[in-house]
């Protein structure tokens, strides 16, 4: 884990906004996932590691001390038949996909709230069969449901989670894969 408030370099797509003192979580939608490193136009960009990025994003060390985005955590709903999870191991979202509450099911039918993690896909990847689930956004973020685009990827919403904590949330639909 990278310490909070440390300045780091992350690999971002070439169209990422530049700015001095940017927080890493604000660059999340522009970060190049590990699976796309070397395959897309990208550049290293500095950012300040904030608490959300430090606790919800996982990086691997790349060339020249540049961090590559490896995995992200999401907060979502599980179904009643979700198997018992090891509390000390963050489950992989795709391993649990069949137990995640689909976005076409009323969120009131959720049996669990859970955190899982996965490797985000690269930009422009093809969707054969999108997996749409619910993402839970803390109400204290200042984000409203109407601010979220309809086909947003779940991993792009991680920037709104903040550090692990309890609290009230609201669900928005997102695409997992």
Task: Provide a compact summary of the structure.
The chain is mainly β.
What does this structure look like?
The mean pLDDT is 91. This protein has helices at 24-27, 51-56, and strands spanning 7-13, 42-48, 57-61, 66-78, 91-92, 112-118, 132-138, 169-175. With 177 residues, the protein is mainly beta. The longest helix is centred in the N-terminal third of the chain and has 6 residues, at 51-56. The strands form two sheets. Strands 1, 2, 3, 4, 5 and 6 form a six-stranded mixed beta sheet that branches.
- Based on CA atoms alone, the radius of gyration comes out at 16 Å
* SSE run: EHEHEEEEEE
Mean pLDDT: 91
Query: Structural class per helix/strand content?
Result: mainly beta
The helicity comes to: under 10%
Count of DSSP-assigned helices: 2
* Low-pLDDT segments, ≥5 res: none
What does the main sheet amount to?
A: 6 strands, mixed
Task: Let me know the number of strands.
Answer: 8
Shape: globular
Strand content: 25-35%
End-to-end distance: 25 Å
Key features?
single chain; mainly beta; 2 domains; six-stranded mixed β-sheet; 2 helices; 8 strands; two-stranded antiparallel sheet; 177 residues
